[in-house]
Specification:
With 132 residues, the protein is an alpha+beta fold. It is built from three helices and seven strands. The strands form two sheets. Strands 4-7-6-5 form a four-stranded mixed β-sheet. The chain has a three-stranded antiparallel β-sheet with strand order 1-2-3, with no helix packed on it. Belongs to the glyoxalase I family. Residues 1-98 form the VOC domain.
Length: 132
Amino acid sequence: MKIYEKDEKEQRALLGYADNQCKLELQAIPGKVDHATGFGRIAFSCPQEELSDLEDLMKRENQKILTPLVSLDTPGKATVQVIILADPDGHEICFVGDEAFRELSKVDPEGNKLLDDVSLISKFLSPLAKGD
């Protein structure tokens, strides 16, 4: 990643892969963060050829790998490579091969129609579920 901005005084940095892509801002937080019962996973796409290097680096540095590099089939669509790591607090960080991710993220031209169909079915079934 390229460092776009770095402010030592404010303890923040802005990172990104390219000028025309989203950026990641990291900012120091003083003190401990109370996550309570919150959980989740953050995911990043990166060039597929870098995933095995990332896995090797995590192994060399004895960092936690929750899911080793694996290929996940999506029927009728691209096979995506994924590795899931854990940060020091145990939160999941997922890295996905960019090429397949972009293929899977394309707009489905039938998407709006499918959502409309589901909404119509839900409206029809909702009174039945209530016993009306």
